[in-house]
Amino acid sequence: MTSERPTLERAMPDRATYDPAMKTVEVLYVDTADPPPSLSDADDVSLSTVSTAAAARDRLATDGSVDCVVSEYDLPESDGLALLEHVRHDHPNLPFVIFTGSGSEEVASEAVGMGVTDYLPKDAGGERLRERVGRAVAAISVEIESGLSGDRLRELTNAFPDVAFIIDENGRYLEVMSGPGTEDLRTVEQEKLVGRQLHDAFPGPQADRFLDLIRTTLETGGVETIEYRVETAGGVRWYEGRTAPLGDTIDGREAVVWVARDVTDRRENEHQLAESRDALTRLNRINGLIHSIVQSLVASATREEVEQIVCEELANSEFYEFAWVGGPWVKDERRGPSVVAGVERDEIERLVEATSTRSDDENSLARVIGEGVSVVVPDVTDSEILSDRESEIMRELEMSSAVLVPLTYANTNYGVLGISGACTGAYSDRERTALETLGEMVAFAINAVKNRNLLLSDNAIELELRVESPRSSFGRLSTELDCRFTLEGVVPIAEDRLLEYVAVEGASASAVIDSLDEMDVIDAARVVTEDDEECLLELDPAWSGVDQLVKAGTVVKSAVAEDGVVRYVVEASSNVNVRSVVDSFRTTYPSAELVSKQETDRPVDTSPEFRQTLGEDLTDKQRTALQAAYFAGYYEYPRESTGQEVAESLGVSSPTLHQHLQAAHRKLVGTFLDK
After folding, report:
1. What is d(CA 516, CA 194) in angstroms, rounded to the nearest whole number?
2. Do 667 and 618 meet the contact criterion of CB atoms below 8 Å apart?
3. What is the pLDDT of residue 646?
4. pLDDT score at 14
5. What is the pTM of this model?
6. What residues does CATH 3.30.450.20 cover in the chain?
7. I need a labelling partner for 117 at 20 to 30 A (CA). Which of 76, 379, 657, 659 fits?
8. How far apart are CA 616 and CA 215, in angstroms?
9. Which of 353, 345, 350, 349 is nearest to 364 (CA)?
10. Pick the CATH number of 4-147 from 1.10.8.420, 3.40.50.2300, 2.60.120.560, 3.10.20.520
């Protein structure tokens, strides 16, 4: 071995000869913010600062003494990657460190691909930056102060070694050099590795692979790269190995320099980034599927058609195996699925039965409907919420994952949407949110179909409900204030809010409003009219029986509270589930009674009949005023004729014209709303 040492000493100089602490390092710092004190106050660092990429390029063009560039990613009128690209073009071997507070995984990945020397987030601290700058400059110092070929070493030092080896053509370790802080990255203690073979340190197949790489390097005379996984003192790590010919023979054998850089963190970041991209791609495609489904729902004429479209679209997609809709489930009544797609109906009926027979605390269907939340099973083979029977059936169906989504709109539940995923681990938070939004849109479509069918149907179901309960604020006040309340009409002002217009006989407006405020059942109230006998109130209720009935898909025809009893008369479409409506109403008033149920005809008025009815209500003067104002452009915006001009055309005063118009408007609107 006496012939080895002089050659090795020439090939790999003592680490002290290129320690950055031995000389002042010229650093160009590019950022609008001040550099960290650990860099600016260091005795062995000469720091120059500029705030833009353009200024940095000018400085590098005129000053060749810069040893390292440290740059923020986010720069005025440019960014650190653009500066890196310029530096790599004009100064390919100049160390370049990105030290940023505004980067990301994508920025880091792109920077590595462009040849950045190091990438460090600012929250890592200034001391880490100082260390990384020293290591980057040390890499270049090796080329300058060693006897290795400049071209070969330049390739090598693009990834400055955490650990470096000299290995001969037979796979024998001739020298090992470890950087500071790499003790836990070694596979074998340094003093025990020199003189041993690759096969002593690695399993046979992996050692054979490494030996092939060494021989390829010697044959091509270039730099070769490999990534490999090893067990180290610090655990499983991934390395990027770069090999280059040493250029000299040792004991008559050729050798290579093998530089091992720990890339475990980079691989993990790349893996996480790939997973994030895959998840985002999946989510975008699922959102596209949901958008397509919602578009298809627009033309649906029946509830069955709505449910069929949703289930078939989900079952035919690449993300889900099958889908079904069931419910709504009401007290003491458990119904099977109404629509199933992608699987046999009896299979889902078995699963629904297995779930329904469980107690409410363990029943997923009850939780979805009662609490309005989704239930997710990411992995059917490993789930604590499934019973043995449910798990058995789901495995027989070859289900990987599942989710139950409530079909709820405006506090009214229309059932459950069940979906089987095509793989385990599905239903991320964002995917679940997207499916819950789909559930809301399906419920909205069902509600819209019910309302449309009710409006267009020639017949309907009329229900009379009776409530005698202290929970009823108007029933209670009718006794306490000895008065009578009559619902005059309701106006929806938001998705979950109604204005109720209530006539009061026998009590003052202030007494009623004060009592309702004390009961905390209204958000706002306004007196519309009041005289000695009665008043009309505009109420914005926090909750009410009328609101509950409207959300159940009915039209409230009347509501009267007197002597502690409230009677409601409502209309629903002829195919409504009366039990569902009543049970929904009883969530507000548990003691409510269904007094009567009967079918009623709803004659359809034609346009001529509507005009005839309106014509009979209007006087000649009102009709004349309305027609003159219309044809004169009084209702255009901006108006083509003023009220004074229309009045002069008719030969009447302006107040008289407005009196006729106001009366005509009231009859016109009243006739329309009463239809």
Report:
1. 91
2. yes
3. 81
4. 32
5. 0.42
6. 154-262
7. 76
8. 106
9. 353
10. 3.40.50.2300
Query: How would you classify residue 9: left for phi > 0, otherwise alpha for psi between -120 and 50, otherwise beta?
Result: alpha
Q: Residues 627-647: pLDDT tens digits? A: 778 777 788 888 877 889 888
**CATH H-level, domain 304-454: superfamily:** GAF domain (3.30.450.40)
Name the range with the highest mean pLDDT among 16-25, 82-91, 153-162: 82-91
**Residue tagged 């940023």 (tokens):** 100
How would you classify the pairing of strands 74-75 and 412-421?
Answer: unpaired
Residues 6+ apart with CB under 8 A from 628: 646, 649, 650
pLDDT at 297: 76
Tell me what percent of the residues of the chain surpass a pLDDT of 90: 18
CA angle at 133 for the pair 132 and 138, rounded to the nearest 5°: 100
Q: For the segment 148-167, what is each residue's pLDDT rounded down to a tens digit?
A: 444 444 444 443 445 778 88
C-alpha distances (whole Å) from 532 to each of 360, 487, 510 are 54, 19, 13
Residues of the chain with CATH 3.30.450.40: 304-454
Q: What is the CATH number of domain 154-262?
A: 3.30.450.20
Where in the sequence of the chain do the CATH 1.10.10 domains occur? 607-674
pLDDT at residue 212, rounded to an integer: 93
Predicted local distance difference test score (pLDDT) of residue 514: 93
